[in-house]
Amino acid sequence: MDMHHLTPLFSPQSIVIFAGDPETAEASNAQTAHARLLVRQLTDGGYAGPVRFLDINMRGSLADLAQSRVDLAIIALPGTQLTAALEVAGRIQCKAALIVSSGVNAMQAAELHAIARLHGIHLLGPNCLGFQRPKAGINASVLGAMAKPGSLSLVSQSGALTASMLDWAEKNSVGFASVVSLGANTAVDLAEVLDYLATDRETLSILVYMEGIRDARRFMSALRAAATAKPVIVMKSGRQPAGSRAALTHSGAIVGSDEVFDAALRRAGAVRVRTFAQLFSAAKCLASRYKPVGRRLAVITNGGGPGVLAADWASDLGLTLGTLAPDAADALQSQLPALATLQGLIDLSEEADASHYRAALNTCAADETIDGILVILSPKPELDVNAIAQTLAELQPSISKPLITCWMGDAQVVEARGILSAASIPTFRTPEAAVDAFSNIAAFYRNQQLLLQTPPPLTHLAQPDVEGARILIESVLAERRKVLTEMESKALLAAFHIPLTKTILARSATEAILIANQLGYPVALKIDSPDISHKSDVRGVALNVSNAASVRDIWQDMMTTVGRLRPDACINGVTIQNMSGKPEGRELYIGVTTDVPFGPVISFGAGGTMIELIADRAVELPPLNQFLAQHLIDRVRSAETLGAWRGLPPADRESLEQILLRVSEMVCALPQLREMDINPVIVDAAGALVVDARIVIDQELPRTHKYGHLAILPYPSDFEQEWPMRNGDHYTVRPIRPDDAEMIQNFVRELSPNSRYMRFISSMRELPSKMLARFTLIDYDREMALIAVHRVRTSDPDGSIRETEQMIGVSRYVTNPDLHSCEFSLAIADAFGGQGLGSRMMLSIMDFARNKGLSQIEGLVLSKNTVMLKLMHSLGFTVKPFAEDPDFRLCTKLL
């Protein structure tokens, strides 16, 4: 209901400029180069609102200053005058400020940020080049001429790249809704701008160039909100170590592992590109307003070679070559030259002209088995390339699928490319670049499909012994150690019910024999030392030891050899453990590392002694659910061995998923956990078993939130309450989970038509899949949904009692753009009205919002919904007419 808190910055109703006196500055050369350019750009941009010029000496009467209250203050002054100008902006109650400058050091930037916070100003800058809003006529930048209006928004942490993109866009007829240049030390950061663009109606797609982030939690929350609403394409520098160091010094931001960054983008539903060429390709397609589609790309060409290049590159990128349905192919064949072929590629042959391209394009546009169309043209003697381009331009408005072109060559096709660009049809010089462009659209579609999946119900796992795990960690840290021994590592895993081989430490050869006899042969012997990471490197592992004499000899030899090779290592003894008993098992690896800034990261892949050489792994950010665990397993090459493999029966994948879920529980519950290697995990048809583990811990860092070490807030399992009903029954109130999708769908189906209308202002009988995913796959950091669950006991025909769960109510809040208030919604099952359920659900969601630090809750209620309005009055809400729609009442309450 409220406008975004950055609206005064990017859509100001009035502007005040601090850039020196424009009437005397040119003569006295008092204005900086930035100031002169900015004043000229803003004046020529066509901004319709009032613009006033002020100076830092506050000349004029108090009445004049009082009338200077505006939305946005633009400051382009020398560094020594920035602090005074921002103070003046605060005193005249500006809501936002832009400082266009360079060379401001971190100390002065911190001082400017403090002034902005004191006056409640949203500050973009310092050290930034400004922003453009072409449709509003605002060119508050030193980036060059105003961009053309469009639906694409660009956010960049590099001013040079921003200027280059604008120059490219002008030549390629690409327009922008917003262009924002973020520099080092800016107060309004990338996450806030993404949050604004997610709600900006003029923005239909977003391009991001970034060098690093400071707050992973805020970035992930904002990116997911933006990518859920519209396509987001991200390019990030600093992929290699040297690049990371450069990014650190250039932007003042922390850059994490490139592999982890990819995992974060997948989790948020955004798409990554790695080169400027791919970024420009993405911009072309997104500027054409193409919606996300599938992966089936049809290729229409008049030459076999370019078509084959496109098909090969499509295959390399994981795309599918779209082929016509048999009936459609037969109908088209009669309209094409005799040499045309339609098997795989749609090769029109060298005799093709505009009419043949028209027929092929119309057929592909109507075929439901095709998601996108790539049209390739190779210039031939006497071929009218302009006529074919004009044909595509005429058909473009009637085609609902992405249409991408590749007019090969140069001199002969320049005019044709102009025709295509003028019709907003993306055109490229090479088949590979064109396929890349479609791949970006398809990747967004694929990531959105993953984001909108509703996972199956989770297996109810036994509660871990978190307190015991914390006691173990504290005892190790008290000894000023960070590396757990194998025994301690396995004890920590056991606290989370991870299946392990039975392991006992032997401090003498005699102990080793007694333990081996008790466990039963064959056994494995491993050196136990917190200082030795890889036991096999120092001959500290012996497998398949079959008798007591061998145990004695190996124990003695191992202690001697390891002591000689690593005299500095502290050796606790030798662990004795059963062999896994899984001769048909597959050796896999599960690991945990701590990334800066994203925090804990879970990795999975092929295990064993050649883990570094094989380099088969995938990573994912916690928390995991069963669907994410399954997807993590599927992304590695070794996943193929988990099925029936070379005469072996299929492995028990579910047991592997359970271990991944348990590891996710560990990293969420134990912020001291820094690194972990579980290698190998052996899995066969009977289940999975952990054979060896190594864990590194450290002191917990100061944090303000229970899960402050995580980039993604996990399911708040500790908020679960049981409440009585007036009829003596009970129900449970808990946060919603992704696997509640089926239960919430049944809840909506069973609502009466009147109740459905009061809640959704619609008569729909069930929730569409996208809405269902939106309601269940929530970002717990910015919203919350609490559901009331009633357990129903029924008897089966055989007389057995079955207990099922039924959702009987839901309350929800979503944080408003001001980040201080939230909007609520409430729905109660018709059969459970009058039980006090509505009051309890509202009080619970208000408690949650209050604990989150929000100060006000508000919501719209239909004027005819007397029951809901009565409830609002009883809870102390202020109810008043809603100015924008008389059919609603606005209900507000301070928390």
Task: Describe the protein in words.
The chain is an alpha/beta fold and 895 residues long. Among the domains are: 130 residues, NAD(P)-binding Rossmann-like Domain (Rossmann fold, 3-Layer(aba) Sandwich); 141 residues, Succinyl-CoA synthetase domains (Rossmann fold); 146 residues, Succinyl-CoA synthetase domains (Rossmann fold); 174 residues, Gcn5-related N-acetyltransferase (GNAT) (Aminopeptidase, 3-Layer(aba) Sandwich). It is built from 30 helices and 36 strands. It has an 8-stranded mixed β-sheet with strand order 29-30-31-32-33-34-36-35, sandwiched between helices. Strands 7-6-9-8-10-11-12 form a 7-stranded mixed β-sheet, with helices on both faces. Strands 13, 14, 15, 16, 17 and 18 form a 6-stranded parallel β-sheet that branches. Strand 32 and strand 33 form a beta hairpin. Helix 12 crosses helix 18, helix 19 runs antiparallel to helix 20 and helix 24 packs across helix 25. The longest helix has 21 residues. It is globular. 46% of the residues are buried.
Largest sheet: spatial strand order: 29-30-31-32-33-34-36-35
Q: How much β-strand is present in the residues? A: 15-25%
Low-confidence stretches: 24-28, 242-256
Number of helices: 30
How would the global form be characterised?
A: globular
The largest sheet, given as strand count, sense and whether it forms a barrel, is: 8 strands, mixed
Tell me which CATH architecture of the domain at 721-894 applies here.
Answer: 3-Layer(aba) Sandwich
Rg (CA only): 32 Å
Identify the CATH class of the domain at 721-894.
Alpha Beta
* Extended strand count: 36
